[in-house]
Amino acid sequence: MNKGKFIVLSGPSGVGKGTIVANLLASLPIHYSISMTTRSPREGERNGVNYYFVTKDEFEKQIKQGNLLEYATYNNNYYGTPKDKIEEKLNENISVISEIEVKGAKQIKKIYPEAILIFIAPPSVEELKNRLIGRGTETIDKINERLSIAEEELKEATFYDYIIVNDDIKDATDKVINIIKNS
Ligand code: 5GP
């Protein structure tokens, strides 16, 4: 039986993963894995669309019940991938994409060694900082925390099957689409 592909997309905060995912969902029949998080919704984010926004207690209950494929803490919040839809979609020969940070991606690779891991890198850390400031969704303290996490994450990029530098969003999206189509 043919199974769908499991695509994992990582990259530092502000690198443009969200835009790349939105672009490729518009052109490929692929299931987007909605993560669960304890962070508060940003303006415009909706529960069950961008994330499942839950309390810390609820998240810990999900961990205990074994409902998460992987989870990690990032900037003092939990983030995790609900198990339920993933296996179902892969068995229906539908590919799945999940946008997660590096520790989670490593866990996924252990469970699904055939998963395709793609890392989106910024042209430079300076550029990343400008993008985060321009996005305006975090305070400067939070931006600095995210930048120091980014520097750690960039060191882990070699673990990935593919690294794409996002210096042009259309170019980067096309590269991700080609990887998915050809792997
Ligand atoms: P943000 O707060 O910017 O939405 O996400 C922060 C980080 O958490 C990003 O690197 C994002 O990719 C990651 N993330 C989102 N969902 C998950 C998940 O389900 N598991 C893990 N391990 N990381 C996630």
Describe the structure in your own words.
This protein has helices spanning 17-27, 56-64, 84-91, 102-111, 125-135, 140-155, 169-182; strands at residues 6-10, 30-32, 35-37, 51-53, 68-74, 77-82, 95-99, 116-121, 162-165. By secondary structure, the protein is an alpha/beta fold. Strand 5 (68-74) and strand 6 form a beta hairpin. The longest helix has 16 residues, at 140-155. The protein is globular and about 50 Å long. The two termini are 17 Å apart. Guanosine-5'-monophosphate binds at residues 13, 35, 39, 70, 72, 74, 79-81, 99-101, 103-104.
- Please state how the strands of the largest beta sheet are arranged side by side: 2-7-1-8-9
Helical content class: 40-55%
Number of helices: 7
Largest sheet: 5 strands, parallel
β-strand amount: 15-25%
Write down the secondary-structure element order. Answer: EHEEEHEEHEHEHHEH
Integer average pLDDT? 95
Residue windows where pLDDT falls under 50 for at least 5 positions: none
Tell me the total number of β-strands.
9
Structural class: alpha/beta
Distance between the termini: 17 Å
Overall 3D shape: globular
Q: Kindly provide the radius of gyration, computed on alpha-carbon positions and rounded to a whole number of angstroms.
A: 16 Å
Oligomer: single chain
